[in-house]
Every structure is written in C-alpha cells, then in structure tokens.
Specification:
300 residues; 11 helices; three-stranded antiparallel beta sheet; alpha+beta; Helicase, Ruva Protein, domain 3; 9 strands; single chain
Length: 300
C-alpha cells in the first residue's frame, strides 16, 4: 500500500474541495495516484471539479514576447521561488521569449540558438553553476495569425513580460489593430482565469472527453434508479453539456461581464468592427502545471 503523506492529502483537498478523510480514502484506494484519486472522488459524487488544470509544483516564470501578428511563450523552471525572483533569471526568461519569437521555435530548438556569445543551453548551464540551483527551459511555443493580431496577458506579473501565468490569443481579422488588441487583452485575461482546455468542442482530446463521459455515466447511474432510459440519456446529455461549457473557450461565460458567452462576444465584436473577427488560436502556460510536486517530510 502506498504511503499517503499529509501533504498529498492536503494537495488533493485543495484541488477538489473534498474533506480530508475522503481525500485520504481516495488516495489509499488509488495507491497515491493523484489523477485517479480525483476521478475516484468525482465518481463518488464527493468532488465537483469539472476539470483539472494540473498539479502546479515547480517554481519559475513564464516569459512572453509579442510582435504584431506573432507571439511566443516560454516556461523556465527553477527549484525555488527565490531564484525565480533573481534579476539574472528574469533577464534570461525575457531574452529566451524574445528569441523564441524571432526564431519561431520550440524549447528543444531554442536551446541550440545563440544568446549573445553562447547558446541558450550554455547560458543556462553557466547560470546554474553561478546560482547553484537546477533550472530548465521546459517548453516554448509561438502563435501567429494573418491578418490580425496576437494579444497577451501575464498574471502574477514579476514584470510586464514575466509572470506565473502567460496567455497568447490570436484574433484573425482585418479590423483596426488597436481595437483587436484591446479585445484580445480581455480575452487573454479571461483565459488566464477560466483555463479552457480547447477552443471548441471539436478541439478537445478524445481521451479527455471519454474520461469525462465515463465519470458522468457513473454519476448518472447512481442517481437514476427507476428512471426511464430516455430520462437517463437526457441527464447524461445535460452533464456533458455543462462539461463543455466549463472546458471549451467558445462556450465559456466571459469573466469580464459574467453573462455573455465567448462566441457571442466575438459575434458582437464582428458587428461593432464592421468585419468578421475570429479566435484562430490561444495558448495558456502556467508555471509547473502537470508536474509532480516534490514534497519532503520534515520529520524524516
């Protein structure tokens, strides 16, 4: 049986809102597998979490760079937040984002690009030796659109180009670029807060949809004793519709006004600007998402 630490139980509780004993039972039943424990709680009807953004564990910063119709995001991790606040580290992340934008490359290719007199990889290695803490360029992505603009937003900003969450939004349109940029900034703020999984339902991973459907089928079955099949199917359909409203950007409610769906926001913008406006893509990076947390037992 897996050793279930108090910190792991707390992490599950923070993520799901379930009670400590329920979280401990879920982790025991799933041998300490956090993702499986979330599903276990949801199948028992204990957790109402619709989706999981990922276990945020590693420290570091997200760097962003934009240039009209293109933008780049880079995540650089460090072991501690103390190093993430170091000026040398922040400068490195800024320059890495600018380089990713200029070169249009991913993290692996970025490491081999020149940053001053050395490559990004060599610069990082030298910084590790100087600061004495492990660091890594975890990921990098670029987003382009034509015609249109790529807008951005940084949350928990350490500076205008650095933060714990970074978002790029590509708006395809021939509308006035200043108006597009203003709309894009608001949409990027929404994405930072709402953390959509995909632009449309069609863009969602089949694995994600199937996993969610399996959970909802079990929940419906627990609450449908004696109900006719057509009612059961409508219950499942309603639950999946709610999932899509939470997970899909176009179907989410705009956090800026709290009432308008994002697809309606875009329709209104198209009407107001006098030309079609389309969200052609978005990217959201949060420091450490999807990485396992390394915890130490102080008593040990």
């Amino acid at each position: 049986m897996a050793n279930i630490s108090a910190s792991l139980v707390k992490e599950l509780r923070d993520e799901t809102g379930a009670g400590m004993m329920d979280c401990k039972a879920a982790l025991a039943a799933t041998e300490g597998d956090m993702e499986a424990a979330v599903d276990w709680l949801r199948k028992k009807g204990i957790s109402k979490a619709a989706k999981k953004a990922g276990r945020v564990a590693a420290e570091g910063l997200i760097g962003v760079a934009v240039g009209g119709d293109a933008g780049a995001l880079v995540e650089v991790n460090s072991e501690t937040d103390f190093v993430a606040r170091n000026d040398q580290f922040k400068d490195f992340v800024k320059n890495a984002a600018k380089l990713a934008l200029a070169e249009g490359c991913d993290a692996e290719k970025l490491l081999d690009k020149s940053m001053g007199d050395a490559s990004v990889r060599e610069t990082l290695t030298n910084m590790i030796a100087k600061i004495g803490e492990n660091m890594a360029v975890r990921r990098a992505v670029t987003l382009t659109v034509s015609p249109g603009v790529v807008a951005f937003y940084v949350h928990n900003a350490a500076s205008p180009e650095l933060g714990k969450i970074g978002v790029l939004v590509a708006l395809k349109s021939t509308a006035d670029k200043a108006k597009l940029a203003a709309l894009g900034k608001q949409l990027a703020m929404h994405i930072a807060a709402a953390a959509p999984l995909a632009l449309t339902a069609e863009h969602l991973s089949k694995d994600v949809v199937e996993r969610e459907r399996a959970i909802q089928v079990e929940l419906v079955n627990q609450n449908s004793a004696g109900k006719p099949q057509n009612i059961i199917e409508k219950m499942l359909e309603g639950r999946m519709r709610k999932f899509y409203e939470d997970a899909v950007l176009q179907q989410q409610t705009f956090v800026i006004d709290g009432e308008t769906r994002i697809d309606k926001v875009i329709e209104k913008a198209s009407k107001d600007f006098g030309v079609p406006v389309e969200i052609s893509g978005f990217v959201r990076f949060q420091v450490g998402e999807g990485m396992d947390k390394i915890s130490e037992d102080v008593a040990d």
